[in-house]
Amino acid sequence: MAMMAGSAGGGRRRRRSRQSGVINEINMTPFIDVMLVLLIIFMVAAPMMTAGVPLDLPQTKAAPLNSDATPVTLSIKANGQVFLGEAELTDEAIVGKLAEVSKTGFDERIFVRGDKKVDYGRVAQVMSIVTTAGYKRVALVTEVDQR
């Protein structure tokens, strides 16, 4: 009887090992589903994170510049208020805040976004403050004319 029990147990073990063998394939479907959801989330969220202050920018036919790094952006609203991101700045605080956020010092690229209704003299005044402080790479931002 001992032999029969031993042989029966051995048969059962073999069947179990065949049924519960190691799976040598990775199921990629859940991974792909998660990646597609993340892609959609980032596609929707990315445009909302670019500029903090809504402006009506002037339109030009100039081609956009290719830029690898995210530049520091000063925004000037139609009433002349200056913003760095979403924080409002006074004229005296512009240089100090630029020094805080610039990673490469005076070689940092500074973009100035001015509403199309803002006085041109105000835009020139802000650009003068930035360039007088020593920043060499100051540029104006416009929208591309789609006509």
Automatic annotation (TrEMBL):
Alphabetical UniProt keywords: Cell membrane, Membrane, Protein transport, Transmembrane, Transmembrane helix, Transport
Gene3D superfamilies according to UniProt: 3.30.420.270
Broad class of where this protein is predominantly found: membrane
Bilayer topology: Single-pass membrane protein; Single-pass type II membrane protein
UniProt KW Thylakoid keyword: no
Residue ranges of the TM segments: none
One Pfam match: ExbD
Subcellular location: Cell membrane
Family to which the UniProt record says this protein belongs: Belongs to the ExbD/TolR family.
Entry protein name: Biopolymer transporter ExbD
Species whose genome carries this gene: Microvirga terrestris
Phylogenetic placement of the source organism: Bacteria, Pseudomonadati, Pseudomonadota, Alphaproteobacteria, Hyphomicrobiales
